[in-house]
């Protein structure tokens, strides 16, 4: 039976179309994503079939890092600067496609309207948020496991053992 919208169960890049738990055997476990990524890079350098490999974040947590305190001045200033850039780009595009050569009026108009609009939007957003700090959220894991399909998991384990020994062959 075929899928109702054409194609099989996988997208063009070989990834599942729907969220699917990872499969494979664990061949390494690392404290940071960078270490797991380095392990996969090492496997690739050794010409290992990395298409069989998956990095899985385990014990996920959402971390919200506080960037600083918000004030009306900072909110309005940031809104004005963002609006200035957006308005300048729109005005520049409108000015370039003018029938009488490049015109400065659309650029100035876009700049002014962008500043006004973004400042008003920033003020409304800040007044409704009731937060006096800015932050950035990030999804992180307690550890990162490297999984491999069973057909090549043993070879992957041996290579990662070499990496743990400093890149020298084991034995």
UniProtKB/TrEMBL annotation:
Task: Give the residue ranges for region: Disordered.
Answer: 1-20
Q: Which UniProt keywords apply?
A: Membrane, Transmembrane, Transmembrane helix
Name by which UniProt lists this protein: General stress protein 17M-like domain-containing protein
InterPro entries given in the database record = GSP17M-like_dom (IPR025889)
In what ranges is there compositional bias, type Gly residues? 1-12
Ranges that cross the membrane = 75-97, 103-124
- The General stress protein 17M-like domain covers 27-99
